[in-house]
Structure formats: C-alpha cells, structure tokens
Amino acid sequence: MFPLSIKGLRFAPEQRVVLDGLDLELSGEGISIILGPNGAGKTLLLRLLAGLLPPHAGSILWGAAALPDGRLAMVFQQPMLLRMSVFANVEFALRPQAMSAAERRARTDNVLERVGLAHRAKDCARLLSGGERQRLALARAWAMQPRLLLLDEPTASLDPSATEAVERIIREIRTEGAKVLMTTHNLGQATRLADDIIFLAEGRVQEHAAAQRFFAHPQSPAARAFLQGELPWRIAFDR
Ligand SMILES: Nc1ncnc2c1ncn2[C@@H]1O[C@H](COP(=O)(O)OP(=O)(O)OP(=O)(O)O)[C@@H](O)[C@H]1O
Ligand SMILES: [Mg+2]
After folding, report:
1. What CATH number has the domain bearing residue 214?
2. Under 8 Å CB-to-CB from 190, ≥6 apart: which residues?
3. Does residue 166 fall inside a structural domain?
4. Residues 1-36: pLDDT tens digits?
5. Ligand 2 centre from 66 Cα, in Å?
6. Which of 15, 18, 53, 150 has most ligand 1 atoms within 8 Å of CB, for mutation?
7. Does any ligand 1 atom lie closer than 6 A to the CB of residue 44?
8. What pLDDT digit, counting tens, does each position of 45-66 carry?
9. What is the number of structural domains in the chain?
10. Is the CB of 55 under 6 A from ligand 1?
11. Which tens digit of pLDDT belongs to each residue from 63-92?
12. Do the domain assignments include residue 88?
C-alpha cells in the first residue's frame, strides 16, 4: 500500500476551497507529522485518507491500488469510546477480525498492559481521564495491528507526563512496523517524534522535508511565517 501517492486532491464544499490540488507522496516507514494553521485541512486530509468522506477531485493511490491492502486505523482528537469497560472497548474493535475469542482476549490484555491500563480493564471507559482515554484509544488502534496509523492531535489538552506516555506508545507502534501519520500543534512534539514534516497551508502541501531540515531551514515563505508565529523568540533562521 506504499508509497501512498496523493495527486491533485481537492475538497471544496459549497464553493469554499479547503484543499486545492494537494500533492503528497509518503513512504511506508517512520512518523510523518502534518503541521499547519487552524483550518488548513489537516484533520480533513486524515479523514479523506481513512475513506470517511470522498474528495471532490484528485486521486489517492496505495502503491498501485485504489484501496489500501493493509489495515488502517485512525484515532480522533476526541476518541469515541463505547459505554463499556476499558477491556470491552478494545476487545469489541477486534471482533471483525478473524481470530479466536481467546486470541482476542490475549491481544486485548497485551495492549492494555503496554499502555498502562491493565489495572483499569474492568472500569467503565467513560470514567477515564483525558490522558487515559487517549491511551485507551491508542491501545485499541494498536491491537488492530495497523499498517498505517492516522492520529489527529493525539495529545491535545494532555499534561506533559500524559503527553510523554502517549509519545512513547506512538514510538512503539512505529517500531512494530506501522507507518504513523499524525497532526499536532505541539512543535516540541513534532521535533521529538517526526521523521518528516508535511507543512499544509492554503490548500496545499507547501513543504515536505526531513524534520531536522524543516525546523532548521524552512524553505517555503509560508512555513517560515508559521514557525516565526509559533516560535516568536526565533527571530531569524539559519540560511
Ligand atoms: N465534511 C466537511 N464538510 C465541509 N467542510 C468541512 C468538512 N470537513 C472539514 N471542513 C472544513 O475544512 C476546513 C479545514 O478543516 P480541518 O478540520 O481539516 O482543519 P485543521 O487543519 O484540522 O484545523 P485545526 O488545526 O483547527 O484542527 C474547515 O474550514 C472545515 O470547516
Ligand atoms: Mg484538526
């Protein structure tokens, strides 16, 4: 399903252009982070890739195919949790997969252990804190063993230690072979996690570069302006 090749992607509801011929090519390795101002279309791009809504024009090719042949999981900014136990939230998500009930339970136990929620397995998921909910949502996605994991601001509104816990989980999922494509407004997080940065503004990818290079030498005027706005103490960039 890789390289993922997006060409001329357009999303223009009611004459308002949000994505205006977006091109992007992604390899199947590493963590790619989408940055950009509010309303740039970051969440929308993830939703289009997840097939949750159709684009108005353009193409998304997974390798040479129109549909991904590997599993894809998406975690939303406000994860949707079922009014059931922590355990059931993961176990339920695995039911469509061909595996025995015992295997499903074992995999559920395993991911809950790894995200540090094993001791909360019997609690109602709706009672979890924000950071715990995000960890549960990640555990659920992880259990599905996705080839591509889409994460929309997975640590928005989490405190630094919850953020660190979530970042550790994201790294582990990547290490196990999933490609991660995520959005964040936390530039510290982007420098910690990203292999490459996709800078989205005005309906297009303005810049796609290795993370280190992006932060040290942003090439596009839009990315420079964005970083200067977000990091006002960085008055000038190295040339
Ligand atoms: N299904 C939809 N139908 C119509 N308009 C939509 C739809 N989804 C998103 N939009 C519009 O597309 C624009 C981009 O939204 P999106 O949520 O992708 O922004 P974003 O880059 O994720 O911003 P933020 O940083 O605030 O999360 C917004 O103006 C939004 O109203
Ligand atoms: Mg968004």
Report:
1. 3.40.50.300
2. 33, 35, 184, 197, 211, 215
3. yes
4. 999 999 999 999 998 999 999 999 999 999 999 999
5. 25
6. 18
7. yes
8. 999 999 999 999 999 999 999 9
9. 1
10. no
11. 999 999 999 999 999 999 999 999 999 999
12. yes
